[in-house]
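Incident log, support desk, overnight shift.

02:14 A customer reports that sequence design results differ from what the structure should imply. Their input is reproduced verbatim below. On-call engineer (initials T.W.) acknowledged and began investigating.
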């Protein structure tokens, strides 16, 4: 697919701006208090506003990065990524959603790095992948995948494992308030978890990962939104 021209960009923006009612930004003109921060993977196939059916400004704070990681390294330590912590600390957002997705390229790259022992990427990409490598190594050590697991199955299992670990990190961080509701989801556009492409599947809530317990915590009409590729330990 060729790169988009400046004409295409401006035309798309014109269509967007012309579609907005006059009062569209009134409620957020002087500030924001989004109820949800959704940290998602940087991927053109995964629309954060789309998956949550967001049509209005100010409802969803939308950081994204390689591998939907909630952490970054600062002075040698892992700390909560500033783009995630900002809405929690400064706009009192009290619901955090960590969203991985099936077929994740970042998890795939980290998986290959573990298997080959090297990351052949520019420094900016390598820096992010290096933070995922320990997650993949830990998952492999715990038997989440093994030598008999196909690559596609391994990637999707590791995606879910990574979401769990990101949720755990937020739950354990002193920088995140105790009353923050933290959920982990996998966005499935490939029919891995079920037959509804575009559905998010709840795989962790406050660190709870057992599907039966998770189903008991959601309204019964959303029970199909709870699935797991990982067996409970």
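02:41 Re-run completed on a clean worker. Output:
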């Amino acid at each position: 697919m060729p790169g988009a021209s400046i004409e295409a960009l401006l035309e798309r923006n014109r269509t967007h701006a012309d579609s907005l009612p006059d009062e569209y930004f009134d409620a957020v003109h002087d500030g924001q208090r989004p109820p949800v921060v959704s940290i998602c993977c940087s991927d053109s196939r995964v629309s954060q506003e789309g998956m949550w059916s967001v049509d209005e400004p100010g409802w969803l704070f939308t950081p994204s990065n390689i591998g939907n990681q909630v952490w970054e390294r600062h002075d040698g330590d892992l700390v909560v990524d500033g783009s995630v912590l900002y809405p929690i600390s400064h706009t009192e957002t009290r619901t955090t959603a960590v969203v991985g997705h099936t077929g994740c390229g970042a998890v795939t790259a980290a998986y290959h790095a573990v298997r080959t022992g090297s990351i052949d990427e520019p420094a900016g990409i390598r820096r992010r992948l290096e933070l995922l490598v320990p997650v993949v190594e830990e998952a492999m050590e715990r038997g989440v995948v093994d030598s008999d697991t196909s690559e596609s199955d391994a990637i999707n299992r590791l995606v879910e494992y990574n979401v769990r670990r990101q949720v755990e990190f937020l739950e354990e961080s002193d920088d995140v308030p105790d009353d923050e509701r933290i959920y982990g989801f996998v966005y499935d556009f490939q029919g891995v978890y079920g037959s509804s492409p575009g559905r998010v599947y709840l795989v962790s809530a406050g660190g709870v990962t057992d599907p039966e317990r998770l189903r008991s915590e959601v309204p019964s009409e959303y029970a199909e939104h709870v699935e797991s590729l990982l067996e409970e330990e």
